[in-house]
Amino acid sequence: MKVFISYSRQDHIFRDEILKILSILEQNDTIKFWVDYREIKGGDLFDEKIEKEIESSDVFLLLLSQNFWDSEYIQQKELPDILKSHRKKQTKVLPIILKENDDYLDYIQLKKFSAIPQANEGLKPLISYDSKEEGYQIILNEVKKIIFAQDIRSNLHILFLSRHALNMLSPYTTFNELEIDPKNIIFNNENKSWYIEFNEYYENKKSPVLKSLTLNYNEEEKKLFGEYFRNIYFL
What are the φ and ψ backbone dihedral angles of 197, each rounded to 5 degrees? Predict the structure, then answer.
């Protein structure tokens, strides 16, 4: 899963502190935080690189301050592409308020996204916390929720397979366990379906039983599962 961070370079101190606290999540090899300064190399076509990375990202963190709104590139290129990705793929967008920023509340396209950090009195800019560690911990917790909820949405085939295994359990069977090799999970991009081969083990059989499933689900089903499982995190 790729998390794209959009920010003004004038806010690099906030950027670095946020990356530092989020680095624990990158210990999971399936999660990557994409930041321009450490990914774009000399000779790269900047606009094309940014566009490509936005297109392939799953989650967007927007580090909001007046510097963010004053950036012509962000306003004319980066932010429109991010919002386009959200409309097209339902990618997650998380605004993070760095400083006092009334413009956020006036920007209608972002108002629908719940911003952080949140305190008892409501939205509280990161710079307003007496303890910066408290503000950064709130950011870590919220990003963790979004990442792993989004991760579930992209792994619904595993949930369906788990449901199949649970359905096998009854007092009248000797079903013992289900085994699956990741290489036997195949996504068919043409018809957007998953083909899965797996072994079922039974106490009264010496050899496993090879089975397969073809899973298809529509966008509404994905949405329902994404909502239902949004508070389950794979740590």
Answer: -110, 140
Mean per-residue pLDDT, 114-121: 80
* Residue recorded with tokens 């806010």: 11
Cβ–Cβ under 8 Å, residues 50 and 77: yes
Residue 215, classified by CB atoms within 10 Å of its CB into exposed (0-12), middle (13-18) or buried (19+), is middle
Q: What is the mean pLDDT of the chain?
A: 78
Structural contact between residues 69 and 103, judged by C-beta atoms closer than 8 angstroms: yes
- What was the pLDDT predicted at 235? 28
For the full predicted model, state whether its pTM sits above 0.70: no
DSSP H helices, 56-121, are 66-70, 72-73, 79-89, 102-106, 108-111
Number of DSSP helices (H) and strands (E) in the chain, helices first:
11, 10
CB 126 within 8 A of CB 64: no
Cα 215 from chain centroid (whole Å): 22
Range 106-115 burial, b when 16+ CB lie within 10 A, else e: eeeebeeeeb
Pair 78, 64: CB distance under 8 Å? no
Locate 226 and state its tokens: 């994404």
* Residue-level pLDDT at 218: 66
What region, left, alpha or beta, does residue 29 occupy, with left being phi > 0 and alpha being psi -120 to 50 degrees?
Answer: alpha
| Nearest-10 crossing angle of helices 219-228, 132-153 | 140
137-178 per-position pLDDT tens digit: 999 988 887 876 665 555 556 666 666 666 666 666 677 777
